[in-house]
Specification:
Number of strands of chain B: 0
Mean pLDDT of chain A: 86
Structural class of chain A: alpha+beta
Radius of gyration of chain A: 37 Å
Helix content of chain A: 25-40%
Structural class of chain B: mainly alpha
Low-confidence stretches of chain A: none
Order of helices and strands of chain A: HHHHHHEHEEHEEEEEEEEEEEEEHEEH
Oligomer: heterodimer
Largest sheet of chain B: none
Helix content of chain B: over 70%
Shape of chain B: flat
Low-confidence stretches of chain B: none
Mean pLDDT of chain B: 90
Distance between the termini of chain B: 23 Å
């Protein structure tokens, strides 16, 4: 005994900790509870939104604990890493024993031991032992092995070891989970998700990202040639389709359609039909300078005004607004196209949202502040809203899913069991004992055993 | 008459079955028990016909799709899978007392459809996918198996209490033995877990085609993962750590509560990409 073995002892302890099922249970509880927390606390809010919803002190706490973006936080990823380590250590430690268990045979059997097995059946056969064994071997598809009995006679033993590899099920499942997690890590590190809105007739070369403020260039341009949407008779959306052209260095490379559930893929970047927006034409007059700027924009797009200090965003549009206060039924006056405008100044203060009307450009609110904002039109040309994503880890994730599913089927539906048939000489032929035992402690073997036993009895039993 | 009328009528058939099973338990009447099984089977067959009818009817209206696309259709399918899995379990293990617990669940599910919009509606673009059928079917078969496991766990806890207090007689004494109930719980979960796994994986595959992301930590996705974790805990605790008894029964019950939250609570109380599922 010395320092070296003590060192090994520590390492062994760590290994033991990581291979324990209690750790697995604890981690599953921790991950489940954390995941649940993330569904109750709004995720990915901006600081301003979070303060508005939860107040400042709670927002500070949420940010410190990383709960505002829980699923990507360090501690959540740490829990996942612990689970992955647990899986690896656990599986590598237990696998050798399971492997040996697969190749274990029932050992020496005799008529008496077989009759003690839960599922067993004995009968006589008018056939001689060699013949009986030969026929049974056809049914069981395994070769008879000759053995000596105590009395000096000969007997044949047929051993059918089935479903042994089912015992690897949990390990295949764990491997599948590890491959899947690996793919997820690759995706989160090397992939991206974002969106792009393209006006019909225009092209875009980059997307804004869901997480973060940079833009991600594609390396090519995608032009929306036409956007169509159709409705069912009752008004529900039926189909959205964008007809697009991919351009590289100005040259048309390919054309295609993007519809919901039918994405378009080019150079590892996938485009998904997500939404659409009618385009809104605005004229913004600077009251002091007397200059006008024209914008073509859409709902939720933030546009910077010429003074550099103010931002404008359309919160909502109405192609034909009803006079406020009028009822739906009583012929209320219709006011024409309207847009709800939100102005944000440099310090984040909001002005509005307030409605402006195309047909009434001189309304008071439209003229407040430094700008006179006019709605020129809500156009029939659309912006198509595409989600853009690239995930290099997807292949691993799908592989992991398939391996996981195979592992689960193996674990739950394939059971290791052994069926033994013993054929010995008897006065008028042979005596046969068949019995089946479960080798992994699971599986209802009786139903299956009865079928096989019937088949064998039918082939060599008393009726012959 | 429409498929909705037939399904509505089945609510009362399942209610009748529940009462017959109760009679079987209280009065130890074999005939009441057989009556319960018969009514449950009649209800299941009628539901099968109604679901098929609705499917065909949607094609006649020019908006053909499998009847799995909104809250009403999913509730109806959930009731169907629950009774189906229950009858399979009943046939295999001849435990009619289980019917007293499972059939009321099916009855309640169908009864709650009266609060939903029942019309056949066209599919919005996001639902127009072949993944819809496999994802919904595997999920609900899994939920049904968990509903059965929930019932056997409740029965197990009642039985355990009565066995401990040595009280002879009483309704609980007519339940199957606690070992059998524990075994039934395990087997139901062993059936439900692979189905739920397939359900989550088909959902992820569909999300990849529809939204470009197989996993977005959307509340519905997250809660299905939570349910998966809970049943994974059950299986590991039981098979590897050798837990038996009260602890695993409680995990099974928690799992079903989480399942219900995943199915209904998320749609009602949280928002996310799945909100059209409550349409």
């Amino acid at each position: 005994m010395g320092k070296e073995s003590r060192g090994n002892g520590k390492f062994d302890e760590v290994l033991k900790f990581f291979s324990s099922v209690r750790l697995t249970v604890f981690l599953c509880i921790a991950l489940a509870a954390s995941s649940a927390l993330g569904t109750f606390i709004a995720q990915n809010l901006s600081v301003a939104e979070s303060v508005a919803k939860y107040g400042e002190p709670l927002t500070k706490l949420l940010m410190v604990l990383g709960i505002g973006d829980l699923y990507h936080s360090g501690w959540f990823r740490f829990l996942m890493a612990l689970l992955a380590t647990n899986l690896i250590v656990c599986s590598t430690r237990r696998l050798p024993r399971v492997w040996r268990g697969i190749h274990r045979t029932p050992g020496k059997v005799s008529g008496e031991t077989l009759k003690k097995w839960r599922a067993n059946k004995s009968f006589r056969s008018p056939l001689g032992p060699e013949e009986a064994a030969a026929r049974a071997s056809k049914i069981l598809r395994c070769k008879p092995v000759e053995a000596e009995t105590e009395g000096g006679g000969r007997q044949y033993v047929l051993t059918s070891n089935r479903g042994a590899y089912g015992r690897l099920g949990p390990y295949v499942t764990h491997l599948g989970v590890l491959i899947l997690l690996f793919g997820a890590v690759i995706g989160s590190v090397a992939g991206f998700r974002g969106g792009v809105e393209i006006l019909e007739g225009e092209a875009a070369g980059e997307a804004w990202l869901f997480r973060g403020t940079e833009r991600r260039p594609f390396g090519f341009e995608i032009r929306c040639d036409n956007f169509t949407f159709t409705r069912y008779e009752d008004g529900t959306p039926r189909d959205y389709k964008s007809e697009v052209t991919i351009l590289e260095e100005g040259q048309v490379v390919r054309k295609g359609d993007i519809r919901v559930n039918h994405p378009l893929s080019h150079k590892g970047i996938n485009f998904y039909q997500s939404s659409y927006y009618p385009s809104v034409d605005l004229e913004v007059k600077d009251k002091e300078k007397g200059t006008s700027t024209f914008f073509k924009t859409h709902i939720n797009k933030t546009v910077r005004l010429p003074d550099g200090q103010t931002w404008l965003r359309i919160e909502d549009v109405d192609p034909d607004m009803l006079m406020p206060g009028a009822s739906m039924k009583g012929g209320g006056k219709r006011l024409g196209p309207a847009a709800a405008i939100l102005l944000i100044n440099a310090s984040g203060a909001h002005q509005g949202p307030f409605w402006i009307l195309k047909n009434y450009p001189d309304m008071a609110r439209a003229r407040e502040g430094n700008y006179h904002i006019q709605l020129i039109d809500i156009s029939t040309s659309y912006y198509t809203g595409l989600q853009v994503a690239s995930d290099p880890g997807v292949g691993f994730v799908w592989t992991g899913c398939i391996v996981l599913l195979v592992g689960i089927i193996m674990s739950f539906f394939i059971h290791h069991r052994t069926l033994v048939v013993l054929v010995g000489r008897d006065d008028d032929g042979s005596k046969v004992t068949a019995a089946e035992k479960s080798m992994d402690g699971r599986g209802d073997i009786e139903v299956e055993f009865n079928k096989v036993a019937e088949a064998i009895a039918g082939a060599i039993g008393p009726s012959h | 008459m429409t498929d909705m009328d037939v399904t509505g009528a089945v609510t009362f058939i399942y209610l009748g079955a529940s009462l017959f099973y109760l009679g079987h338990l209280v009065f130890q009447s074999e005939r009441a028990g057989r009556g319960g099984s018969l009514l449950a089977l009649i209800g299941l067959l009628a539901q099968t016909a109604a679901i098929a009818w609705r499917w065909v009817e949607s094609y006649k209206q020019g908006i053909g799709h499998a009847p799995l696309s909104n809250l009403y259709e999913s509730l109806v399918f959930f009731a169907w899978t629950t009774v189906l899995i229950y009858l399979i379990v009943e046939r295999r293990w001849k435990a009619r007392t289980l019917g007293t617990f499972v059939l009321p669940i099916a009855t309640f599910i169908l009864a709650s459809t009266s609060l939903t919009d029942q019309e056949i509606r066209p599919l919005v673009p996001a639902l127009q996918s072949n993944w819809l059928t496999s994802h919904v079917i595997t999920c609900f078969l899994g939920y049904a198996a968990f509903a059965v496991a929930f019932s056997t766990s409740i029965m197990y806890l009642l039985k355990l209490r009565s066995e401990k207090s040595d009280s002879a007689g009483g309704l609980v004494s007519r339940f199957p033995g606690s070992d059998t109930l524990d075994e039934l719980t395990y087997k139901s979960i062993a059936l439900g877990f692979p189905l739920l796994t397939a359900g989550i994986l088909t959902g992820a595959a569909w999300a990849q085609y529809a939204w470009g992301s197989y996993w977005s930590w959307d509340p519905k996705e997250t809660w299905s993962l939570i349910v998966w974790f809970i049943y994974a805990i059950y299986l590991h605790a039981r098979i590897v750590a050798g837990w038996r008894g009260r602890r695993t029964a409680i995990v099974s019950i928690l799992g079903f509560i989480a399942t219900l939250f995943c199915y209904m609570g998320v749609n009602l109380w949280l928002s996310g990409l799945h909100s059209y599922g409550s349409g």
